[in-house]
TrEMBL record:
Organism from which the protein derives: Streptomyces doebereineriae
Name used for this protein in its record: Glutamate-1-semialdehyde 2,1-aminomutase
Classification of source organism: Bacteria, Bacillati, Actinomycetota, Actinomycetes, Kitasatosporales
Keyword Cytoplasm: yes
NCBIfam families in alphabetical order: hemL, PRK00062.1
Functional pathway: Porphyrin-containing compound metabolism; protoporphyrin-IX biosynthesis; 5-aminolevulinate from L-glutamyl-tRNA(Glu): step 2/2
PANTHER family: GLUTAMATE-1-SEMIALDEHYDE 2,1-AMINOMUTASE (PTHR43713), GLUTAMATE-1-SEMIALDEHYDE 2,1-AMINOMUTASE 1, CHLOROPLASTIC-RELATED (PTHR43713:SF3)
Primary location group: cytoplasm
Recorded GO MF terms: glutamate-1-semialdehyde 2,1-aminomutase activity
Gene: hemL
Summary of subunit composition and partner proteins: Homodimer.
Compartment(s) where it occurs, according to its Swiss-Prot or TrEMBL record: Cytoplasm
Entries under InterPro entries matching the protein: 4pyrrol_synth_GluAld_NH2Trfase, Aminotrans_3, Aminotrans_3_PPA_site, PyrdxlP-dep_Trfase, PyrdxlP-dep_Trfase_major, PyrdxlP-dep_Trfase_small
Amino acid sequence: MTTSSQWFERAQKVTPGGVNSPVRAFGAVGGTPPFMASASGPYLTDTEGKEYVDLICSWGPMILGHRHPAVLEAVQAALQRGTSFGAPSGGEVELAEEIVARVDPVEQVRLVNSGTEATMSAIRLARGFTGRNKILKFAGCYHGHVDALLASAGSGLATFALPDTPGVTGAQAGDTIVVPYNDLPAVEKVFAEIGDEIACVITEAAPGNMGAVPPLPGFNAGLKEITARHGALFISDEVMTGFRASRSGWYGRDQVAPDLVTYGKVMGGGFPAAAFGGRADIMQHLAPSGPVYQAGTLSGNPLATAAGLATLRHCTPEVYARLEEVSSTLGREVSAALSGVGVAHRVQYSGTMFSVFFTENAVVDFDDVQATESYRYTAFFHEMLRQGVYLPPSPFEAWFVSASHDDTAVNRVIDALPAAAAGAAAA
Ligand code: PMP
């Protein structure tokens, strides 16, 4: 048996930081990340045979739990038919139809391989469609590692306290305007000055990448109104919330119709699939219908579309009811455990994603997030991990649950909370 420490040592020799996505390295919380060997339902098992209740769910995709029988069956059937055609196939049409049928403002979609590609392509399309260069994003929102979108991004950049990143040129970032999240007057001000130069506003439909910081009532509607008034596009990034916040994503909750939407995670069922879509008159500007170029060798991959379709089709009302139940139970129990040891905190929700902030105050933007006592999370995290609960290894990420989190799994988490809360109190 190769232990996690041995794997990590080998990994660090051949891969920067030993990981293929930064937050996995435990940089914010320290220690050796367990290397996973297998997964089933709500559980991950590491290479040493230790089992964890998984509260990341692959950062969103595993909404039905790991190795859901219907998803496995669909993928195995697809595997028998071939792994990549480089030509159109029916599964791509069915997945696109499934998305379009769920979300009224999405009339057409283009499939891609990652959320990063989806946002990158949506921004290019918005610029091509409007003939404008500037884009507006919010501090603490993460939209993948697109050059122009890494300014004041959340997720790994927040975890590692990076304001932005070397390797992005002034020209690439120069057209990106960043304003505080949930601050409509700040958006109004920018548009009053240079509204006719702005191609789009992009926002996480309900942020999870600075922890869960939901939009204040009217915020998304305000963005829609301001962009429409100035001839800019409103892009809602639903990579995390899409088909998780409801069967039609965050749109199903607030009914604010974006011009373009980006998806990933759940719609790929654990495979690399993502999408962007929206108004047909805008989407028609994409090649080969229109002049804005976008392409992909593996886009619409038959294994990924099979997994995504099977996942979406099994997201029944019972699935969403269970996500609500598990996330509200866990949030309540985390809160009770922390209150029990006198630690000031808030549990916040973006739909069924949630996170705990160590503060008494409402957290509505990235400044608020950074003002929290996030150092308490390290002790909390490690005690949970020791007891077999796998939380995001960063205080600036959301927790994800699945419909496979049954009472046994939930109770294992609850039983681990008092010691973790005591750790947070002592920090
Ligand atoms: N947008 C959002 C809201 C995300 O949460 C993420 C990834 N966590 C992305 C875009 C990028 O997706 P990917 O990691 O698949 O490139």
